[in-house]
């Protein structure tokens, strides 16, 4: 551990959480999501590669280390004229790196590159979305990357090994502070959504995530109606089906009263795509099938839409699922571009 103990870099966390009201609504109260402040992003560097301009942004998240994100867009376009998508990184057992796993950046540790190859088809998902003509923001989340705890470990692989055990301690601390790990992550994601909304064209926003990022995307959709379209990959099941063989998930999923399908059905106006791997070892086939049926029924009458895509794969954001996700976001972006009106934020 660091010289600051188990919570290095976060000495101000308790005071911040105790001094903030919770985000309005049942989910905000259930997760204990502190109402975020207003971010003031600062550009830390910009580069162009393969038709994509990437800018690293940072801002004060209100407590702890500054939050970092990557803003990407086609090099020949003004990001303020393009529809916006928030790209949310997975858990993956990798906390030394957050959003960078989704972005074409140099210097990533070998185990992170191996994860990208095995779990995400070797793709830089955020760059691919930008090449599709979107303004993309890929932020680090609480506990990951720029927002990781200082454990006094410099080697990335060793840090990630230690961070797995440390997550249990963070979850216990969250309980003491009347919040949850999912609630603190949602706090950071809401900040990032504000940054995206100020960086892209007016109108509804998109959000995409794989695995833990998919859970984050579903929660954010339930919390903020600026999101009009959502892609959740590798993170959908009925909760009852997790018992007894699939309870070993991270604390991101284990928040009392949270129902994964219910996060999406709470937004009947949203355009939803969920990607499933038939051989995903994290969920039972019955649980995934039941969630798919529940979502299909809930969205059948509109006004939103649900699409479920099953592929013959394990727990992975396969090229086939990436193609489906990108097509889904492109289609919604094209519709949004013709009907754009200023969006509003309700969960404050």
Automatic annotation (TrEMBL):
Which Gene3D superfamilies does the entry mention? Answer: alpha/beta hydrolase
Alphabetical list of PANTHER family matching this protein: ACETYL XYLAN ESTERASE DOMAIN-CONTAINING PROTEIN, DIENELACTONE HYDROLASE DOMAIN-CONTAINING PROTEIN-RELATED
Q: Mind telling me which SUPFAM superfamilies this protein's record contains?
A: alpha/beta-Hydrolases
Which residues fall in a coiled-coil region? none
Family designation: Belongs to the AB hydrolase superfamily.
Q: What is the organism lineage in this UniProt record?
A: Bacteria, Bacillati, Actinomycetota, Actinomycetes, Propionibacteriales
Protein name per the record = Acetyl xylan esterase (AXE1)
């Amino acid at each position: 551990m660091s010289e600051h103990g188990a919570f290095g870099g976060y000495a101000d966390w308790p005071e911040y959480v105790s001094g903030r009201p919770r985000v309005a609504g049942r989910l905000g109260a259930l997760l204990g999501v502190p109402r975020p402040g207003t971010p003031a992003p600062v550009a830390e560097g910009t580069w162009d590669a393969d038709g994509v301009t990437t800018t690293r942004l940072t801002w004060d998240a209100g407590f702890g280390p500054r939050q970092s994100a990557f803003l990407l867009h086609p090099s020949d376009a003004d990001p303020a004229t393009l529809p916006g998508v928030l790209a949310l990184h997975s858990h993956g057992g990798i906390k030394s790196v957050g959003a960078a796993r989704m972005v074409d950046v140099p210097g990533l540790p070998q185990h992170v590159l191996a994860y990208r190859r095995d779990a995400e088809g070797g793709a830089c998902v955020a760059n691919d979305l930008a090449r599709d003509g979107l303004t993309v923001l890929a932020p680090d989340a609480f506990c990951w990357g720029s927002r990781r705890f200082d454990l006094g470990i410099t080697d990335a692989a060793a840090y990630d090994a230690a961070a797995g055990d440390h997550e249990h301690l963070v979850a216990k601390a969250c309980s003491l502070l009347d919040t949850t790990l999912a609630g603190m992550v949602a706090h950071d994601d809401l900040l990032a959504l504000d940054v995206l909304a100020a960086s892209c064209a007016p109108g509804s926003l998109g959000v995409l995530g794989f695995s833990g990022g998919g859970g984050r995307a579903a929660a954010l959709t339930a919390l903020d109606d600026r999101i009009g379209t959502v892609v959740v990959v590798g993170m959908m099941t009925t909760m009852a089906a997790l018992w007894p063989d699939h309870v070993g998930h991270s604390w991101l999923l284990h928040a009392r009263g949270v129902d994964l399908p219910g996060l999406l059905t709470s937004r009947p106006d949203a355009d939803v795509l969920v990607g499933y791997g038939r051989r995903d070892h994290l969920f039972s086939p019955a649980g995934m099938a039941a969630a798919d049926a529940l979502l299909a029924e809930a969205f059948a009458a509109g006004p939103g839409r649900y699409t479920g895509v099953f592929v013959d794969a394990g727990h992975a954001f396969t090229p086939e699922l990436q193609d489906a996700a990108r097509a889904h976001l492109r289609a919604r972006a094209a519709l949004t571009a013709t009907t754009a009106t200023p969006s509003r934020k309700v969960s404050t």
